[in-house]
Amino acid sequence: MKKILFFSWLLLIMSLFAACNDDDQPEPDTEQDPEEFYGEAFDKMPDLNDMVIYEANERVFAANNSFKAITARLDKIKSLGVNVLWLMPVNKQGEEQAIGSPYCIQDYLETEPEYGTLDDLRELVAEAHKKEIAVILDWVANHTSWDNDWLKINKDWYTQDANGNVVPPAGTNWTDVADLNYNNRDMRAEMISAMKYWIREANVDGFRCDAADWIPTDFWRDATYELKNLQAGRNVLMLAEGTDPKNLQAGFDLDYSWNFCDVLEGLYQGSKSIADLYETHRTEFTLIPQAKQKLRFTTNHDRASENSPVQLFKGQQGALSAYVISTTLGGVPLIYSSQETGYQTAVNFFSHVAVNWDSNPDIFQAYQKIMEVYHASEALKTGVLETFADEKVVCFTRSIDNDNTLVIVNTRNSESSFSLPQTLASGTRKNLMNGTSVSMAGTMNLSPYQFYLLKKE
User: Fold this and answer.
1) What is the pLDDT of residue 35?
2) For residue 256, what are the β-bridge partners?
């Protein structure tokens, strides 16, 4: 009898321990009534290896009602090979100490009136889904505006100094926002609840999370787990603005390639080498877990607020050639709204910028063609990479099965003579940009910033 009691108690203790040790994960919210969700779950979420993301800055589309303006331009956006639309923060913005930043959130559960209503956002999401485009929202979890109701009611939800004063994020000059305190469990729960709201009420498909590295990893673990298990059959995409691999381990699907973008800019500015670029590429992918991805870009709202790609990469052709490298070397390509027009100056996202979408149709068509080639080549998306050393010309192949695609880019604003590696210097290849045949002679003469995307005929 004593042995039976002993083993009964032992089994009870073991079962309790197993229940408590289940990675400390919260229970997924999977028992929701389908009627609690606005719209049906999107079932066309692209695979990470097929993904192309478009960042939509509402303020380049219209001074008012920009949700509707973006909806009207969805066909053009899709023509760039885009299958994920990232909307910069849609939430109502603060007014106290504000400077016009969309990353200054007054209310997590309301849309910014400048952009439109919840119904306008729902229409945008629904129309995007019809065109097989997922929609993710920019989410600001690190801080709020000074007139957010959270601060009025729950001061302990915010970081305070020794005198009990709420403070901006440490190490920044962001005086328009108040730093959130992630030691507070109630605030964490409310933040996750607010994220769930937009999935339920606007049928969005995930989030791009601002300043992800500044927020504790265990919060992201809980948030991504709950969001990805919110409804059976719903795919939720999570993009971290950061480079800490722990975020990917916590449940994010992809994160930023800040280092790669820095080195690519340096290459065109003359401070970095092609060898530096290849090394940075390999290092970034070595650091991330399997089945995760890196977001690759030549610009985004942060970069474009200082310089346009045309300025950074020494002209329209330079910007295109840099984009070819960024897109085809590896990772998930990003296009920032205005980039495809060849916009020549900085875009201040704190106020409306009137972009003329028809200003450079040849540049727009070039981006379209690059992305058409990209989607048509499985090698450019998933092929094995082989790089070749040169001081001026980026040259690499990506190969999968019988598809061997060769990328050659002159990174200089001058003519360059490029000696082809012996393994490439024979026969002809098809130029995927225009369908012509290119002789693979021993030497190629490239005009300033000329690039080739070539496939064996």
Assistant:
1) 54
2) 295
Alpha carbon distance 12, 4 (integer Å): 12
Q: What is the pLDDT of residue 457?
A: 80
Q: Are strands 53-56 and 105-111 parallel, antiparallel or unpaired?
A: unpaired
C-alpha to C-alpha distances, 263 to 185, 267, 268, 303, nearest whole angstrom = 39, 6, 9, 14
- Concatenated DSSP letters for 330-354? SSEEEEETTGGGT--S---TTS---
Over residues 19-38, the mean pLDDT reads 53
Rounded-to-integer distance, Cα 116 and Cα 150, Å: 23
**CA nearest neighbour of 237 among 202, 209, 217, 211:** 209
The pLDDT of residue 217: 98
Residue 402 burial (CB count, 10 A): 7
Residues 6+ apart with CB under 8 A from 154: 184, 186, 187
pLDDT digits (tens, 9 = 90+) for 430-449: 999 999 999 998 899 999 99
pLDDT, position 402: 87
Taking only the tens place, the pLDDT of each residue in 321-351 is: 999 999 999 999 999 999 999 999 999 999 9
Backbone angles phi, psi at 67, to 5 degrees: -55, -45
pTM of the model: 0.92
Written in H, E and C, the secondary structure of 170-220 is CCCCCCCEEEECCCCHHHHHHHHHHHHHHHHHHCCCEEEECCHHHCCHHHH
Tokens found for residue 55 = 């960042």
Cα separation of 96 and 147, whole Å?
A: 6
Beta carbons of 220 and 236 less than 8 angstroms apart = no
